[in-house]
Amino acid sequence: MYEEWSSPLPYVVAWRSVTPPDGGSKRIVPDGCLDIIWWDGTVFVAGPDTTAQVESVLPGSRYVALRFGAGTGPGVLGVPASELVDRRVPLDAVWPAVVVRAIAESDDPAAALTEAASRRWQGVDRVMVALAGAAQAGLPVGSVAERCGLSSRQLQRRCNTAFGYGPKTLQRILRLQRALALARSGRSFATVAIDAGYADQAHLAREVRAMAGVPLSALLR
Length: 221
Fold this sequence. Notes:
Distance between the termini: 16 Å
Number of strands: 8
Oligomer: single chain
Order of helices and strands: EEEEEEEHEHHHHHHHHH
Low-confidence stretches: none
């Protein structure tokens, strides 16, 4: 079971899931976000991924989390996203232990996570929002720097802080997410490749394999 809903915080999604009785493993595909996750009383940060993470899950395990989009997570955590790339870090490594303990022991982890994040909310970097929007739409990310009066180096530095990697990697990851959404709607892979902005179906296949570790057909299953 998995469900998600809008958080009161901008560009943040709350979600929860319960592992099926047969347990097994799950493949987490990069999405340009970082999450703060409550897992059966343990609280940790799932940093922004560059490749898929495959994790073993126990039957009946419960997860409750906040997913921070548009580069909003590092301001709340007080840590640059570049320090969290492809990592899972205990939340008490970046927040006071007493705060994390209250979340871990809460009867309503979603509310506790939201309250704690709200107290640390640093607002939204409009340049990073614009960058994510351009990358999501498949537009040239360099145009964002030009419109905002930033050099390529400045944009790279701010993107590393907000997302954990540079604009081109962010664009690749969000293009992959766009392709997955199109493929799940039932379109042919050739059509997905064109509509998502790949050169051709072979390009789509290479990118999916590089970042997800399996073919697109396996991801859809």
